Amino acid sequence: MDDDRVFRALADPNRRRLLDRLCDRNGQTLGQLCESMDMTRQSVTQHLGLLEQANLISTVRRGREKLHFINPVPLYEVYARWIRKFEEGRLGLLHDIKQELERNGN
């Protein structure tokens, strides 16, 4: 995984919005993705290109259409590498506090 590319791609709110749209309905065309974006078709295309370079989306040609699909693997890798380890410590601490309170009758 190229962490820098993924984080750069996720840094832009428009790209996150495109990912949200694909998460809601995977396999959309450029035209479909442009419908609710307040930007030019060319700008959406550039954002999609950066998402594809970061491996956050993939595309499949269907006739003349190009369908865009979210690739959750890099997002999971970010979670596994950067988020889960902090989450586990906090959950362990909460578990320990709960056990301590239960032992003390509270």
TrEMBL record:
Family annotation (SUPFAM superfamilies): Winged helix' DNA-binding domain
Top-level taxonomic group: Bacteria
Single GO molecular function: DNA-binding transcription factor activity
Name of this protein: ArsR family transcriptional regulator
Domain HTH arsR-type, first and last residues per copy: 1-90
Organism: Devosia limi DSM 17137
InterPro entries: ArsR-like_HTH, HTH_ArsR_DNA-bd_dom, WH-like_DNA-bd_sf, WH_DNA-bd_sf
Cited NCBIfam families: HTH_metalloreg
